[in-house]
TrEMBL record:
SUPFAM superfamilies from the UniProt entry: Acyl-CoA N-acyltransferases (Nat) (SSF55729)
Stored Pfam families: Acetyltransf_3 (PF13302)
InterPro entries: Acyl_CoA_acyltransferase, GNAT_dom, N-acetyltransferase
One Gene Ontology term of the molecular function aspect: acyltransferase activity, transferring groups other than amino-acyl groups
Range of residues in the leader sequence: none
Taxonomic lineage of the native organism: Bacteria, Pseudomonadati, Pseudomonadota, Alphaproteobacteria, Rhodobacterales
Organism: Mangrovicoccus algicola
PANTHER family: GNAT FAMILY, PUTATIVE (AFU_ORTHOLOGUE AFUA_3G00765)-RELATED-RELATED
Span of domain N-acetyltransferase: 10-151
Protein name: GNAT family N-acetyltransferase
PROSITE patterns: GNAT (PS51186)
Length: 180
């Protein structure tokens, strides 16, 4: 997975060292950090710089941009993961970015994709449902943010379930085209 990935509204590009500052500032926001598992707390510039360095090696992590403005990140290095700055919530951006990564993954012959979300994160539940993920069960993991165990819903998307469709799952291409 090399080179930028383009969608109708977004550019999914490799992380650059200059991204560390805004990444640290956004993830440090409680409304973002609370839904991320496996992310150190507190989260600062050093942690963001390390994430950028790892991202440049892994290739399956991307910065989400719209009109040149960075909005968040999406990753398929492991289970599908994504986060957005709150100003970008509710616009279909996470769904659009994740769909582009999934499309590329399956086009390159990739296998089934795992995902999970913290119980209570209704926005992520909706994104993963729109993408066609199917629930497998629940798990409990430690959250650095909460400094306590949290419950996850675990999901899976098989290549044969992509692209999503059918009466209960409209294709991603039919999602409303909203500006970022």
């Amino acid at each position: 997975m090399t080179g930028p990935i383009l969608t109708r509204r977004l550019v999914l590009r490799q992380a650059q060292p200059a991204d560390a500052g805004w990444i640290a500032a956004q993830i440090a926001r409680p409304e973002v950090h609370r839904w991320l598992r496996g992310v150190p707390c507190p989260y600062g510039h050093d942690e963001a710089a390390e994430w950028v360095l790892q991202s440049r090696r892994l290739k399956a992590r991307r910065i989400i941009e719209c009109g040149g403005a960075p909005l968040g990140a999406v990753s398929l290095s492991g289970p599908l993961g994504y986060w957005l700055r709150p100003e970008a919530w509710g616009q279909g951006i996470a769904t659009e970015a994740a769909a582009a990564m999934i499309e590329r993954h399956f086009a390159e012959g990739g296998g089934a994709i795992g995902a999970d979300y913290l119980v209570g994160n209704a926005a992520s539940a909706r994104v993963l449902d729109r993408l066609g993920f199917r629930a497998l069960g629940r798990d409990v993991v430690h959250s650095e943010y909460w400094r306590a165990p949290v419950e996850l819903v675990c999901l899976r998307l098989a290549p044969g379930d992509w692209p999503p469709g059918g009466p209960a799952r409209p294709p991603v291409a039919s999602l409303p085209d909203r500006p970022c």
